[in-house]
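Q: I have 439 residues here and want to know how they pack in 3D. Can you give me a structure?
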Amino acid sequence: MITETEVNIPPASPARKSPLFWVPTTYFTMALAYMMLTNVSAIMFKNMGMDNGKAAEYASYLILAYTIKPLFASFVEMYKTKKFFVICTQLIIAVGFVGVALVMSLPNYMLILMGLFCVISFLGATMDIAADGVYVTSLDSKAQSLYCGIQSLSWNIGPIVAAGGLVYLSGKLHTDFFHHDPKVFGADWMDAWRVIFLIVAGIIALMTAWHLRTMPEGAKAENTPANVKDALFILRDSFITFFQKHDVWLMIAFAFLFRLSIGFLEKIGPFFMVDPVSKGGLGLSNEMLGLTYGTYGLIAVLLGSLLGGWFVAKRGLQPTLFILCCAVNIPNASFLVMSIFQPESLWLITAGVAIEKFFFGFGSVGFMIYLMQQLAPGKYTTTHYAFGTGLMGLCMMVTGVISGHLQQLLGYTNYFIFVMLATIPSFAVCWFAPFHQKE
């Protein structure tokens, strides 16, 4: 997500290497780190015996740094080059994941582990800022449009690898290599997850070495702050101009509430899959979770996103926004149906997940396009776009923090009824969403 502080960025000189050498690997690395922190960590906490409330809460706190990154984006602009920050943050993140694997063997490791995760999340957000900066300042507008699809596809491969492949591998290691009981949650799962985090550290270290050779330095943006005073002025001015937008509070409500029901579903969906049938879950192993939720489900998201983009391009955003909201929210009912009938067929479970994920991808396109076309335009387009995505991240964090506790209180079936009720604010903000810019 782009967080440059200015709009009018002059074309940079051509990179020495084709963007194909560094754009796909850069956005894959960004997504891999993000997903390990904010999504896969919740599954790990669950495997290690943490209850749903704490597992969802602790993983959701790690979204905070990504939510507030517009607040420190201007300061990253001031020093060295953008490539310098990308390389440094990726290297330290790799070392940090090695540290995660090591501290899991310590007594009372949880406090140190969460501290490391928080540091890594801040570094991950900084990497995102710098990497987006390299992208927008090294490529002219034509090249940015040309590689936008590759950028998006590469980012989406990260969740498939993390929530699909690595979760699957954690189950295989736990069962086949370490010979532990896959149905028992507890400390035995640490053996498998140590290996997973070492693998992630190795992948990111390889990406660091690759980007050191292939990534351009990134040009300075127009009006880059020269000192802390200038950076603070730009930050203050971007806030002032943001709140001067016509109907800004309706747009803020849209940015925060459009994915409200998804926020309540995001962490609990995987928990529902792996919890035993006796507790209202479906009793899947990590291997099946990785295949069903993290692989087939995310492929469905990609397909839905492609078709959603085509749908909006053909018919326009304003006449389709409410339809897109229906696509995001109504298929959440598949989880309610699965919680009632608790199907044993993997095909039925996969179909339920794929339906929800496909329509989520289809409808979410409308959210991003609305932010780009209606909320972002103005003096600080990219910063204001980042404010919008930050509000979405804040929604994901707040709903994630409370979702596990609510689920424990209500049980799965009643909780998924609550998720359906949580779609109502999304429909309301879509109905009243203002359109002041021409599409």
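Q: Anything worth noting?
A: The CA atoms of residues 30 and 391 lie 20 Å apart. The domain at 15-222 is CATH 1.20.1250.20 (Growth Hormone; Chain: A;).
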